[in-house]
TrEMBL record:
Annotated keywords: Cell membrane, Membrane, Transmembrane, Transmembrane helix, Transport
Organism: Paenibacillus phytohabitans
Membrane topology, from the record: Multi-pass membrane protein
Family annotation (PANTHER family): DIACETYLCHITOBIOSE UPTAKE SYSTEM PERMEASE PROTEIN NGCG (PTHR32243:SF24), MALTOSE TRANSPORT SYSTEM PERMEASE-RELATED (PTHR32243)
Transmembrane segments: 24-48, 81-105, 117-141, 153-175, 196-220, 255-276
Pfam families, per database record: BPD_transp_1 (PF00528)
Protein name as annotated: ABC transporter permease subunit
Superkingdom field: Bacteria
PROSITE patterns associated with the record: ABC_TM1 (PS50928)
Family: Belongs to the binding-protein-dependent transport system permease family.
Lineage: Bacteria, Bacillati, Bacillota, Bacilli, Bacillales
Sequence ranges assigned to domain ABC transmembrane type-1 in this UniProt record: 82-276
Length: 291
Protein backbone atom coordinates (compact mmCIF):
# COMPACT_ATOMS: atom_id res chain seq x y z
CA UNK A 1 0.00 0.00 0.00
CA UNK A 2 1.45 3.33 -1.02
CA UNK A 3 2.00 5.87 1.74
CA UNK A 4 1.58 9.56 1.05
CA UNK A 5 4.83 11.47 0.76
CA UNK A 6 5.53 13.78 3.69
CA UNK A 7 4.83 17.38 3.01
CA UNK A 8 7.91 19.41 2.26
CA UNK A 9 8.71 22.01 4.90
CA UNK A 10 8.83 25.46 3.49
CA UNK A 11 11.68 27.58 4.69
CA UNK A 12 11.01 31.11 5.70
CA UNK A 13 12.77 33.59 3.49
CA UNK A 14 15.78 35.27 5.05
CA UNK A 15 14.82 38.72 6.19
CA UNK A 16 17.94 40.82 6.49
CA UNK A 17 15.98 43.89 7.57
CA UNK A 18 14.36 42.12 10.52
CA UNK A 19 17.71 40.67 11.63
CA UNK A 20 19.35 44.09 11.44
CA UNK A 21 16.52 45.67 13.40
CA UNK A 22 16.76 43.00 16.11
CA UNK A 23 20.54 43.39 16.33
CA UNK A 24 20.32 47.17 16.63
CA UNK A 25 17.67 46.85 19.31
CA UNK A 26 19.87 44.47 21.30
CA UNK A 27 22.84 46.83 20.97
CA UNK A 28 20.68 49.73 22.15
CA UNK A 29 19.61 47.75 25.22
CA UNK A 30 23.24 46.89 25.98
CA UNK A 31 24.30 50.53 25.66
CA UNK A 32 21.48 51.70 27.97
CA UNK A 33 22.38 49.03 30.53
CA UNK A 34 26.05 50.05 30.38
CA UNK A 35 25.21 53.73 30.87
CA UNK A 36 23.23 52.84 33.98
CA UNK A 37 25.65 50.29 35.40
CA UNK A 38 28.96 52.13 34.88
CA UNK A 39 28.26 54.83 37.53
CA UNK A 40 27.13 52.17 40.00
CA UNK A 41 30.29 50.14 39.39
CA UNK A 42 32.45 53.23 39.93
CA UNK A 43 30.63 54.02 43.20
CA UNK A 44 31.04 50.43 44.43
CA UNK A 45 34.71 50.33 43.44
CA UNK A 46 35.45 53.66 45.13
CA UNK A 47 33.64 52.66 48.31
CA UNK A 48 35.83 49.55 48.63
CA UNK A 49 38.95 51.66 49.19
CA UNK A 50 40.51 53.02 52.34
CA UNK A 51 39.68 56.69 53.06
CA UNK A 52 43.20 57.88 52.14
CA UNK A 53 43.30 56.09 48.78
CA UNK A 54 43.05 58.83 46.15
CA UNK A 55 43.66 56.67 43.08
CA UNK A 56 41.82 57.52 39.87
CA UNK A 57 38.20 56.30 40.28
CA UNK A 58 38.32 54.77 36.81
CA UNK A 59 40.99 52.37 38.07
CA UNK A 60 38.37 49.90 39.19
CA UNK A 61 38.76 47.62 42.21
CA UNK A 62 42.44 48.36 42.77
CA UNK A 63 41.81 47.81 46.50
CA UNK A 64 39.32 45.76 48.48
CA UNK A 65 38.99 47.36 51.91
CA UNK A 66 36.02 47.97 54.20
CA UNK A 67 37.75 50.79 56.09
CA UNK A 68 35.55 53.42 54.40
CA UNK A 69 32.43 51.47 55.37
CA UNK A 70 33.54 51.36 59.01
CA UNK A 71 34.25 55.09 58.98
CA UNK A 72 30.90 55.88 57.37
CA UNK A 73 29.03 53.58 59.75
CA UNK A 74 30.50 55.29 62.81
CA UNK A 75 30.40 58.92 61.67
CA UNK A 76 26.80 58.89 60.45
CA UNK A 77 25.54 56.93 63.50
CA UNK A 78 24.07 54.43 61.09
CA UNK A 79 21.90 52.57 63.60
CA UNK A 80 20.07 55.68 64.81
CA UNK A 81 19.72 57.14 61.32
CA UNK A 82 18.45 53.82 59.96
CA UNK A 83 15.82 53.58 62.70
CA UNK A 84 14.68 57.15 61.98
CA UNK A 85 14.38 56.39 58.26
CA UNK A 86 12.47 53.16 58.87
CA UNK A 87 9.98 54.83 61.24
CA UNK A 88 9.50 57.86 58.98
CA UNK A 89 9.05 55.77 55.83
CA UNK A 90 6.86 53.10 57.42
CA UNK A 91 4.38 55.57 58.95
CA UNK A 92 4.21 57.63 55.76
CA UNK A 93 3.69 54.64 53.47
CA UNK A 94 1.08 53.13 55.80
CA UNK A 95 -0.94 56.35 55.79
CA UNK A 96 -0.60 56.67 52.02
CA UNK A 97 -1.86 53.12 51.45
CA UNK A 98 -4.85 53.54 53.78
CA UNK A 99 -5.94 56.97 52.54
CA UNK A 100 -5.30 56.31 48.84
CA UNK A 101 -7.10 52.96 48.85
CA UNK A 102 -10.12 54.34 50.70
CA UNK A 103 -10.32 57.40 48.44
CA UNK A 104 -9.95 55.36 45.26
CA UNK A 105 -12.68 52.86 46.05
CA UNK A 106 -15.68 55.21 45.66
CA UNK A 107 -14.07 56.99 42.70
CA UNK A 108 -13.72 53.64 40.93
CA UNK A 109 -17.19 52.32 41.74
CA UNK A 110 -19.46 55.39 41.64
CA UNK A 111 -20.31 56.41 38.07
CA UNK A 112 -21.07 60.12 38.34
CA UNK A 113 -19.65 63.47 37.34
CA UNK A 114 -18.78 64.22 40.95
CA UNK A 115 -16.69 61.07 41.16
CA UNK A 116 -14.92 61.90 37.91
CA UNK A 117 -14.25 65.43 39.17
CA UNK A 118 -12.66 64.09 42.35
CA UNK A 119 -10.53 61.71 40.29
CA UNK A 120 -9.27 64.57 38.11
CA UNK A 121 -8.79 66.70 41.23
CA UNK A 122 -6.42 64.11 42.68
CA UNK A 123 -4.59 63.80 39.36
CA UNK A 124 -4.09 67.57 39.31
CA UNK A 125 -1.74 67.07 42.24
CA UNK A 126 0.71 65.41 39.87
CA UNK A 127 1.15 68.69 38.00
CA UNK A 128 2.17 70.88 40.95
CA UNK A 129 5.18 69.60 42.93
CA UNK A 130 5.17 70.10 46.67
CA UNK A 131 8.41 72.09 46.58
CA UNK A 132 6.65 74.94 44.73
CA UNK A 133 4.19 75.56 47.57
CA UNK A 134 6.55 74.77 50.43
CA UNK A 135 6.81 78.35 51.76
CA UNK A 136 3.05 78.89 52.27
CA UNK A 137 2.79 75.38 53.73
CA UNK A 138 5.52 76.14 56.26
CA UNK A 139 3.80 79.41 57.15
CA UNK A 140 0.49 77.57 57.62
CA UNK A 141 2.13 74.92 59.81
CA UNK A 142 3.70 77.62 61.97
CA UNK A 143 0.41 79.50 62.26
CA UNK A 144 -1.33 76.30 63.39
CA UNK A 145 1.32 75.78 66.06
CA UNK A 146 2.48 72.41 64.70
CA UNK A 147 5.96 71.73 66.12
CA UNK A 148 8.87 70.78 63.86
CA UNK A 149 9.77 67.22 64.81
CA UNK A 150 10.96 64.14 62.96
CA UNK A 151 7.30 63.34 62.21
CA UNK A 152 6.41 66.70 60.63
CA UNK A 153 7.65 65.69 57.14
CA UNK A 154 5.03 62.93 57.15
CA UNK A 155 2.42 65.57 56.35
CA UNK A 156 4.25 66.47 53.15
CA UNK A 157 5.05 62.87 52.24
CA UNK A 158 1.41 61.78 52.48
CA UNK A 159 0.13 64.84 50.63
CA UNK A 160 2.58 64.50 47.75
CA UNK A 161 2.09 60.72 47.45
CA UNK A 162 -1.72 60.67 47.31
CA UNK A 163 -2.18 61.81 43.65
CA UNK A 164 -0.08 59.06 42.05
CA UNK A 165 -1.24 56.43 44.56
CA UNK A 166 -4.93 57.14 43.95
CA UNK A 167 -4.28 56.95 40.21
CA UNK A 168 -2.85 53.43 40.59
CA UNK A 169 -5.55 52.23 43.00
CA UNK A 170 -8.44 53.62 40.96
CA UNK A 171 -7.23 52.05 37.73
CA UNK A 172 -6.58 48.72 39.43
CA UNK A 173 -10.01 48.57 41.09
CA UNK A 174 -11.78 49.44 37.82
CA UNK A 175 -9.97 46.83 35.75
CA UNK A 176 -8.79 44.18 38.20
CA UNK A 177 -11.50 43.82 40.87
CA UNK A 178 -14.85 42.43 39.60
CA UNK A 179 -17.98 43.93 41.09
CA UNK A 180 -19.57 40.47 41.35
CA UNK A 181 -17.32 39.67 44.30
CA UNK A 182 -18.66 42.67 46.20
CA UNK A 183 -22.24 41.87 45.25
CA UNK A 184 -21.92 38.39 46.73
CA UNK A 185 -20.59 39.87 49.99
CA UNK A 186 -23.41 42.44 49.97
CA UNK A 187 -26.00 39.69 49.64
CA UNK A 188 -24.42 37.94 52.64
CA UNK A 189 -25.05 41.08 54.70
CA UNK A 190 -21.61 42.70 54.67
CA UNK A 191 -21.64 46.47 55.05
CA UNK A 192 -19.63 48.92 52.95
CA UNK A 193 -16.73 49.16 55.39
CA UNK A 194 -16.53 45.41 55.83
CA UNK A 195 -16.80 44.75 52.07
CA UNK A 196 -13.89 47.03 51.38
CA UNK A 197 -11.48 45.74 54.01
CA UNK A 198 -12.36 42.02 53.87
CA UNK A 199 -13.18 41.56 50.17
CA UNK A 200 -11.71 44.36 48.06
CA UNK A 201 -8.51 45.31 49.87
CA UNK A 202 -7.00 41.77 49.94
CA UNK A 203 -7.33 41.78 46.12
CA UNK A 204 -5.25 44.97 45.93
CA UNK A 205 -1.99 43.33 47.00
CA UNK A 206 -0.16 43.83 43.63
CA UNK A 207 -0.97 47.52 43.35
CA UNK A 208 -0.37 48.02 47.09
CA UNK A 209 3.14 46.63 46.69
CA UNK A 210 3.67 48.97 43.73
CA UNK A 211 2.57 51.93 45.87
CA UNK A 212 4.85 50.82 48.69
CA UNK A 213 7.85 50.57 46.36
CA UNK A 214 7.32 53.74 44.32
CA UNK A 215 6.42 56.00 47.24
CA UNK A 216 8.66 54.29 49.76
CA UNK A 217 11.75 54.82 47.61
CA UNK A 218 11.34 58.58 47.25
CA UNK A 219 10.30 59.01 50.90
CA UNK A 220 13.36 57.03 51.98
CA UNK A 221 15.67 59.08 49.76
CA UNK A 222 13.99 62.46 50.31
CA UNK A 223 16.32 65.18 51.44
CA UNK A 224 14.37 68.39 50.84
CA UNK A 225 11.41 67.97 53.22
CA UNK A 226 13.55 66.36 55.92
CA UNK A 227 16.03 69.22 55.81
CA UNK A 228 13.19 71.75 56.03
CA UNK A 229 11.39 70.34 59.07
CA UNK A 230 14.02 68.35 61.01
CA UNK A 231 16.62 70.32 62.95
CA UNK A 232 18.01 67.86 65.51
CA UNK A 233 20.82 65.57 64.41
CA UNK A 234 19.51 62.77 66.64
CA UNK A 235 16.28 62.74 64.59
CA UNK A 236 17.96 62.82 61.18
CA UNK A 237 17.20 60.00 58.72
CA UNK A 238 19.89 58.55 56.48
CA UNK A 239 19.86 61.26 53.74
CA UNK A 240 20.44 64.00 56.33
CA UNK A 241 23.04 61.91 58.16
CA UNK A 242 25.13 61.94 54.98
CA UNK A 243 25.51 65.72 55.21
CA UNK A 244 28.48 65.23 57.52
CA UNK A 245 30.51 63.80 54.65
CA UNK A 246 30.17 66.87 52.44
CA UNK A 247 33.40 68.85 52.64
CA UNK A 248 34.39 72.45 52.01
CA UNK A 249 37.51 74.34 50.94
CA UNK A 250 39.35 73.58 54.20
CA UNK A 251 38.14 69.98 54.49
CA UNK A 252 37.73 68.34 51.07
CA UNK A 253 35.11 65.66 50.63
CA UNK A 254 36.29 62.11 51.28
CA UNK A 255 34.64 60.52 48.29
CA UNK A 256 35.51 56.97 49.36
CA UNK A 257 33.66 57.41 52.65
CA UNK A 258 30.78 59.29 51.00
CA UNK A 259 30.26 56.53 48.43
CA UNK A 260 30.40 53.93 51.20
CA UNK A 261 27.66 55.87 53.03
CA UNK A 262 25.61 55.91 49.81
CA UNK A 263 25.90 52.13 49.52
CA UNK A 264 24.85 51.70 53.15
CA UNK A 265 21.80 53.90 52.56
CA UNK A 266 20.80 51.96 49.43
CA UNK A 267 21.29 48.50 50.95
CA UNK A 268 17.94 48.34 52.85
CA UNK A 269 16.06 49.37 49.70
CA UNK A 270 17.79 46.70 47.64
CA UNK A 271 16.87 44.05 50.20
CA UNK A 272 13.23 45.17 50.32
CA UNK A 273 12.94 45.36 46.52
CA UNK A 274 14.37 41.84 46.12
CA UNK A 275 11.41 40.48 48.12
CA UNK A 276 8.72 42.66 46.49
CA UNK A 277 9.82 42.80 42.85
CA UNK A 278 7.51 40.01 41.66
CA UNK A 279 4.48 42.16 42.54
CA UNK A 280 5.90 45.43 41.25
CA UNK A 281 5.50 45.14 37.46
CA UNK A 282 2.12 43.42 37.72
CA UNK A 283 0.70 46.12 39.96
CA UNK A 284 1.88 48.94 37.72
CA UNK A 285 0.69 47.25 34.52
CA UNK A 286 -2.79 46.30 35.69
CA UNK A 287 -3.27 49.54 37.58
CA UNK A 288 -2.61 51.66 34.51
CA UNK A 289 -4.84 49.84 32.01
CA UNK A 290 -7.83 52.04 32.68
CA UNK A 291 -7.92 55.40 34.36
Amino acid sequence: MLQPEPALKTRKPFNAGALLKKTLLQLLVIVIMALNLIPLVIVLSTSLRSPDNNTNPLNLFNELSFASYRTAFERMHFGTALLNSVVLTAISVLLVVVFAAMASYPMARIKSRWSQFLYLFFLAGLVVPGQMVLIPIVQMINSLGIPSTQYTPILMFVTCSLPFSTFLYTGFIRSGVPEEVEEAAHIDGAGLFRRFWTVVFPLLIPVTVSVIITQGIWIWNDYFFNMTFISKSSQSPLPLAMLGFMGDQQNPTQWNVLFAACMLCALPLLIAFSFLQKYFVGGLTVGSVKG
